[in-house]
Amino acid sequence: MTLISTLSDKEEVTGYFLVKELDVKQTNSTPPKDYWDLVLADSSGQITAKYWDLKPAEKESLQSLQVAKVHGIVQLYRDRLQMKVIRIRPTGPEDDVRLTDYIRAAPVASADLVAAIHSKVDSITDTDIRNIAAFCVLKAGDRLEHYPAAKSHHHAYYAGLAYHTVRMLEIGEFLCLQRPFLNRDALIAGIILHDLAKPEEMNAQLGIVSEYSDRGRLIGHLALISGWIVEAALKLDIPTDSPKVTVLQHLVLSHHNLGEWGSPVQPQLAEAVALHYIDSLDAKLQMVEDALGSTAEQETWTPMIRGLENKAVYRTRF
Amino acid sequence: MTLISTLSDKEEVTGYFLVKELDVKQTNSTPPKDYWDLVLADSSGQITAKYWDLKPAEKESLQSLQVAKVHGIVQLYRDRLQMKVIRIRPTGPEDDVRLTDYIRAAPVASADLVAAIHSKVDSITDTDIRNIAAFCVLKAGDRLEHYPAAKSHHHAYYAGLAYHTVRMLEIGEFLCLQRPFLNRDALIAGIILHDLAKPEEMNAQLGIVSEYSDRGRLIGHLALISGWIVEAALKLDIPTDSPKVTVLQHLVLSHHNLGEWGSPVQPQLAEAVALHYIDSLDAKLQMVEDALGSTAEQETWTPMIRGLENKAVYRTRF
Amino acid sequence: MTLISTLSDKEEVTGYFLVKELDVKQTNSTPPKDYWDLVLADSSGQITAKYWDLKPAEKESLQSLQVAKVHGIVQLYRDRLQMKVIRIRPTGPEDDVRLTDYIRAAPVASADLVAAIHSKVDSITDTDIRNIAAFCVLKAGDRLEHYPAAKSHHHAYYAGLAYHTVRMLEIGEFLCLQRPFLNRDALIAGIILHDLAKPEEMNAQLGIVSEYSDRGRLIGHLALISGWIVEAALKLDIPTDSPKVTVLQHLVLSHHNLGEWGSPVQPQLAEAVALHYIDSLDAKLQMVEDALGSTAEQETWTPMIRGLENKAVYRTRF
Amino acid sequence: MTLISTLSDKEEVTGYFLVKELDVKQTNSTPPKDYWDLVLADSSGQITAKYWDLKPAEKESLQSLQVAKVHGIVQLYRDRLQMKVIRIRPTGPEDDVRLTDYIRAAPVASADLVAAIHSKVDSITDTDIRNIAAFCVLKAGDRLEHYPAAKSHHHAYYAGLAYHTVRMLEIGEFLCLQRPFLNRDALIAGIILHDLAKPEEMNAQLGIVSEYSDRGRLIGHLALISGWIVEAALKLDIPTDSPKVTVLQHLVLSHHNLGEWGSPVQPQLAEAVALHYIDSLDAKLQMVEDALGSTAEQETWTPMIRGLENKAVYRTRF
Amino acid sequence: MTLISTLSDKEEVTGYFLVKELDVKQTNSTPPKDYWDLVLADSSGQITAKYWDLKPAEKESLQSLQVAKVHGIVQLYRDRLQMKVIRIRPTGPEDDVRLTDYIRAAPVASADLVAAIHSKVDSITDTDIRNIAAFCVLKAGDRLEHYPAAKSHHHAYYAGLAYHTVRMLEIGEFLCLQRPFLNRDALIAGIILHDLAKPEEMNAQLGIVSEYSDRGRLIGHLALISGWIVEAALKLDIPTDSPKVTVLQHLVLSHHNLGEWGSPVQPQLAEAVALHYIDSLDAKLQMVEDALGSTAEQETWTPMIRGLENKAVYRTRF
Amino acid sequence: MTLISTLSDKEEVTGYFLVKELDVKQTNSTPPKDYWDLVLADSSGQITAKYWDLKPAEKESLQSLQVAKVHGIVQLYRDRLQMKVIRIRPTGPEDDVRLTDYIRAAPVASADLVAAIHSKVDSITDTDIRNIAAFCVLKAGDRLEHYPAAKSHHHAYYAGLAYHTVRMLEIGEFLCLQRPFLNRDALIAGIILHDLAKPEEMNAQLGIVSEYSDRGRLIGHLALISGWIVEAALKLDIPTDSPKVTVLQHLVLSHHNLGEWGSPVQPQLAEAVALHYIDSLDAKLQMVEDALGSTAEQETWTPMIRGLENKAVYRTRF
């Protein structure tokens, strides 16, 4: 089976791909004609595609977030590859394809990631902090299994949120060993909670964010999770103004570090400082790793990466 | 009775003043001697004062936030007036002085301000919004009667918070009449709530903030009041993710307008835009009015005002 | 008659519209063919339109800022509606259409707005300030009747400048009542003058700015109106360095508040502070009201609004 | 005669110095005693001085901006030299001292500088531009002979404004030769006018700015000189909206380059670009030259220079 | 011979032009067809061009950076002129054309510029500084003869780097005469060295930068030339930590003035301050001169200039 | 023996302390009297001290960076403890004190830190990278044993530079294990080199920076170490423009991430991104740990920490 990341100019291809985006558009010929503007994806990357001469009868035959069988030709257009689709149809049981094989996903199985997070919750020694963390993980529900960590910034794929959390927990554990003055309970809980309201901030399926929710746009995931902590405290009969609740709220509210990055307060706690830099370190390195991974091996430079001061990254070859 | 704002160089004065600050310090003579470094205040302003040659026996005789009877001489020191205290003693019942006569306070009686706020809460037509606002006003409790609106920035006096709120409500009502497209319930509730968690953010007595609370420093009054709204909704059985709760949280979280001014989200609602600019208008104009009022009439320029891009204000004389 | 704001995809329409913009362009077919790229407008909004297969004989038959009779079909193109024009011709007397019915305009009649401004000028009690204000209003001339307040930022329609001024005057009067320490003469004059040189800064017809003037680009409306005040003082034999002239110049020069927003000096006068925030309040709320008004009722979010930190606005439905 | 720049610790000195600043202050001993806090100056620099034990009878015997005969001892205090004054008296005719010998002044005679400026005005070939420039130079009057270019930033000494102007004219002439596309009339007039309203912005005597004027604080020298140009045009019957008047206004308004540096418009004219960079070049290099000149020869680094990103300057020794 | 700067709409032209860029692209017709997307240039400017209906056999017949004989028709497309190419072929010996006649180049012969630079190197009196400057000029090699000073910002043409250097040297010499306190050796060497590593930072041919080099992107020309100075010192047996080497490194590292403009240190040397402002003055004025020169004479305004705060420049006509 | 961190108001103390700073100053009494202004230090912290009534004969008896025997009384002055010294004398062999017992130092022995760094150099597998790293470590020489990592920002104590480097190496090793796509050679070398030119940038003894060197101020440690790498390559016959040299230069030049923080280029390499965030993480957490450690246990908040957005840090007590 041909992976998108290996396609090259003029290659003719037949295979299964996820229809990640699907829009009916019109050419600017006279009279304009309908066509499909598609984004096809598999686990290795994505490619824009055009299906010209779309017939009225075909319009309803395909939907986005389906796996389709596609026959097409790859072409270089404005320096980027795109596919001219010749034939495309939705798959059925007879194709024997599994949706999750065709989406970009974290390199670790979702169930393992979620189990790791649960296990870290259980390892928190302070009862109140453990219970608040558990309450919030429960509130996130099964969305934690598949949500990405962001719309496009970083970890923008199936289970990206859980993967980001688990990798940060690994770094956090290392730092707690290296620096015993850190309060492990606070740091572990802070890492688990910091992005946990993202499922309330965004609407996502298959690791793909379609849009921000109204509540996400109007409140943001920092103040949302701070509200979850208040709710947890009330439900668990922990005073909402106790130091533990205060510290957890501070951890999540300050984790973007600066006001212009969305934090209403700045880190004023050892664990809050650690949380912010662990978050940056994991997010930035993942952006770099993913950008290098989705850039053809022979290319020395990746495309520009937004979250990296809009810089491209150089591939070391020694 | 002599007001502080009318004192002049070399004037000898006997009168009652609030001891706003009181510190035992030591001269840098050899050997160092103890003295009191004081800030004396009345309703017209404040003046620094020194009581030299403090005897060990006197040290415990006076406390801050008391009214004292003072005999002293005014002197010009480094371009500012200060008082050399000759005698000072705490007042007792025989002096027949009321503490509240000696502090800076809003120009409207505190009880009237609080009543006006309650009345505006009652005027909200939507039951959920009215109940949430009422819950939060109740939670602020009697601190609303005397809290200042800030430590020093603006309305930093007895009942300053209530006064700021009431004046903003007047502007808000005017705007709702001028622009019927505004949702009056949301705007009135937003104005009442926007600074209502300041009593949780700061510790104050007599309109004077002694310090920020731990919870105030770590969370800030924006996220605090957002948490109160969550609490209100839970207690009142209003879904925490309902549009009304979302809108109220958005109003308070966005009222500082920009991330660098402490808002994790920016105004995205007509009433949130109105709230921010009504808040600025009232706070800035009050700073100017108070600065002109506490600058001697013959002075053309006030001192620099921090909240006004650090500019002084010119007194128009025509 | 069909309003542009009510058009929908695939709708066939015949009606009168203002030709707001008109350009001859060429398709990128081989060989390229001429077509008209149009912007059609009425009082409810505007729509881009294409008239394909433009014949050489037709090229001179139509001009911009005319009302035309149009027959066309609405189409969705790149997520936005546009009109494919089938027939278009200029209107004549027989059509009995009035140009001003087809443009976006302030919701209050232009003559009433201008009369209100004149009346406020007359109400200024100080002779010098009143005469300077009157001189400048006279210099703006009849352009005050129809100029917009900006090219696109806010109040970008017929009589937008006068409307913005009148609404600000209403807020100003309210504040003078609420806060008697404000100098009403200075504030009323400042509001009237603050944008009054916009007609020298821009070239506009029918409320539509075609371009900035050379003088507008090189000097800007703040320094332009400051120069008008100097001119008024010289013509009226008021010393150019008198406090009243100084205060009026300061009001107009500082009304953008910060250097990076175009003010060479920052507000240092109670009335200058009031002027800036009244201006912001009116401009921002009008942007929001206009954005909500021109967004289809069923849409929850407006498009992004440039003057509002590039944020969209949420429509409250309760 | 001993120059201030050559004084050293513990040196006893008798000589004539300008009393640049003179304040009666009080020690913080008990009881406080009066003393004079002085700044003494000569052409080489300045030194703070204290005259302890000031007797009541002496208080009126001396004024600032007089030359005094002084006997004192130099002492190192907090890493800086200051003078302990033993005797001080104002000079009279018998001392045969000239005030101008004791102040910091431009290295070229004031009369020569002013003559050079007049000569450059005369060399402008365009009648309107020449007449406007001449009008403004006349309006500045004899203040041009002695005003500094700034309070402390650069050229803060007698005739500093004229010196700054003349040096910029030299660079301007060079650039006009090197780059014939530049309009010499506009550039020469722009240089002459750019800071010419500083005498209206500040109050100065002997090259020392005591304070900014009300008009200077409220309008600033950029908008002030722009107003002078309007006035000149009206008096000379040149249309105020003619391109020449527009260009001259643009040159002065844009010469600070950016909004945050006080320019309401940015340079949009070859000569405006040249003017800004010539101004920067001359001002910055003069700051460096003056800082090196007033730093003891054996010091490798000058103090920090505010106008130079707050950096100190290194003295090259090869 | 017709110059590109004089072409007008609908003009038919036959002439020689440099093929500055050449790409095979495809129309978005169905099926897509190949065409050449070209940029044609001569000494007067450049124009985009299309050669439709490119036949497979023609594809290899032409390369970029060749002079071609072209027959085409000029057309207005989206407000800009472009050329529809009818016939195009590479030139051969029989055409008798010289490549250098068809490129944009500095207005002074490259050989003269390089000779002027060598002569300035020789005029440096200090042996070490002269030798280091000579070493670096030698290392730049013959690239100094033809490199532009930037990709597009300023002096982006044949020998632009040498031209920029020579003009700055002229200003530098003038300033050394005007201000004898400047160290001429340091300033002359600083000017020669400041952009001398641009040939290592970019890949260019015929004055046209195709791309930045890997080393250029990863290190930048400031740190590159600083490294050349270290290399020169080592090769010439001058201690790398001597004041002269330090000063030369400081000059090149600080010449962008601020950290956000790429300088790791800020100017802290009289000559470094001079270098930065001479560089700005020459670069900005050249941008303006070139923008005016390449804008049609009848246009009052140039296009926006990136390096000039994105402002257009006004053409004075008096 | 009494540690400075345990001293309290009015305590009388006799002990050995390091004389960290020593200045002769004068009281502002009349006449002024000489006194010593001292900073005394031990491994637990430091305290300012005054020795009044310094006799001329005593002035030369003590020098800074000596251990002295001190008898004094602790006093609270302006809210901070200081010591009034009664007797002080330098120590001699008879006191049997070791200097290194009295200074603040990294918590790991200097020799162990240096050995760890050498061992990491040896573990680099690429010969060129290993040799360049070894060359630079050798060039830093024995200063690596005792230099602090900064003047006051972070790790400002004996062997702070080596300690910072070793802790970063630990985090770096962890990340290389967690993320195999990282090039360990580049990251390890980058960590070792990134601050290695600090000994050339500053002058320090006993972990205390007295001042920046001329070369440090004029070039900065980023461009300095970049120059060392060039020197290493030349001495080791590795081409200075090879990818390995380029990558090492890029790592050190970009490690401050942004231009305004001193990096002339931004990280464009996976390992450069990692290096910057590891550096921040270690430096910030060490600041927090050290601030908490030097704040009395009963205090909830540390003083404000400059490198932490000027925020204080809260001490968690659960």
From TrEMBL, chains A, B, C, D, E, F:
Keyword Hydrolase recorded: yes
GO biological process, one term: rRNA 3'-end processing
Gene Ontology terms, MF aspect: hydrolase activity
Top-level taxonomic group: Bacteria
Pfam families hit by this protein: HD
Coiled coil: none
Gene3D superfamilies per the UniProt record, alphabetical: Hypothetical protein af1432
Sorted UniProt keywords: Hydrolase
Residue ranges occupied by any HD/PDEase domain in the UniProt entry: 157-293
ATP-binding found in the keyword field: no
Name listed for the protein in its UniProt record: Phosphohydrolase
